Amino acid sequence: MGLRQTAEWLVETGGPVVRHRAARELLHLKVGDAELLAAPSVVDWLRRIEPPAAGKTLHGSLPTHFENVIGRLTDLGCRRGMAPLDRGTRAHLHWLETDDDPDGYAGFQRANVANGLAWAGYDRVPAIRSRLEDRLATLSAFARRKRYDIYVDPDDYPGQVRGRPLVDPALHADGTLPLPSIWDMYALVRLRASTDDRAIERSVDSVARYVLNDEYQALAPGYGTLRTGRYRDWAIGGDVKLPGFLSGRPDPRAGALALQRIELMAAFPAARRTPWFRAWIRHLDEFRTRRGTWAFPRSYLPQKRSGYWVLASYRGLEESRRRALALEIESTFRMLSIKQLSA
User: Fold this and answer.
1) How far apart are CA 85 and CA 80, in angstroms?
2) Which pTM value belongs to this model?
3) What is the DSSP letter of 314?
4) Each residue of 135-171: pLDDT tens digit?
5) CA–CA separation, 165 vs 170, rounded Å?
6) What is the spatial distance between Cα 329 and Cα 325, in angstroms, rounded to a whole number?
7) Which of 294, 340, 307 is nearest to 71 (CA)?
8) Cα(128)–Cα(111) distance, rounded to whole angstroms?
9) Which tens digits make up the pLDDT trace of 216-266?
10) Is the CB of residue 118 less than 8 Å from the CB of residue 186?
11) Backbone angles phi, psi at 173, to 5 degrees
């Protein structure tokens, strides 16, 4: 089968999520939302949207934390304009417009929520758009400096710093860290796709090139420790590490995270030109079947009870993953999505 025939096979064979997404995203057909919104997995995850409560419901590894819920719902095909999602996220949009807590951690949570909403299609909402463009200005200005020496000697600072590298406090003197997070990258995909402003495209691409560098990929996991007060520090997370980038060899043990990162980075032209991207595509193509579909190892598409969405914890798309074709359907949809972005 050719790629279009394979996409048509997905529409004929897949469950409501894959059928909807394949028709809309791969075949560019107009499809109604009723069947998708009635799918049990979609109904279940829509019910998990909880009102924003800073420090409690927004960031974390539980399947009720907003960052995981919004990522998962987007993966299931939900987007702005679907009434149940719009109702569920209304309180989060209001919170972003009204919350002005100056605490650094609260700011981190606001950024995560804004980025998650952008990924779900709310990037044109003024409260989100202004945040995205301000954040892009910060990220691109730093990326163009090509600075990767981001650490200082913790012995030069009072108090105990946990056993991780200390990020130079001068980098975030204004309370904003100019290093991209994984959620920043998801938001930048939407920002780049929704503009014809070449200046914005160039700025987004400068951030992508910053992370597509050996020096960036060699930074400490999660960047390290952030000092937010004279005796206060906390571990950062959410860096944009790409499994196998430094070694140049795909490692099947990292297949789940690598597949998710390939789907994300395929939206950036600079990423598609890297040996890392091409090597993983060759590896994934090893799982192509005789009829032109793909069937990845089950470990590449896990569906866990809890964990971070950005770390590939929730990847299932079919309602019944026990049926024989489920993994083949999911693998094929993922691969066709990547190939469409890479064309």
Assistant:
1) 7
2) 0.96
3) B
4) 999 999 999 999 999 999 988 887 766 678 999 999 9
5) 15
6) 6
7) 307
8) 9
9) 999 999 999 888 765 567 788 899 999 999 999 999 999 999 999 999 999
10) yes
11) -60, -30
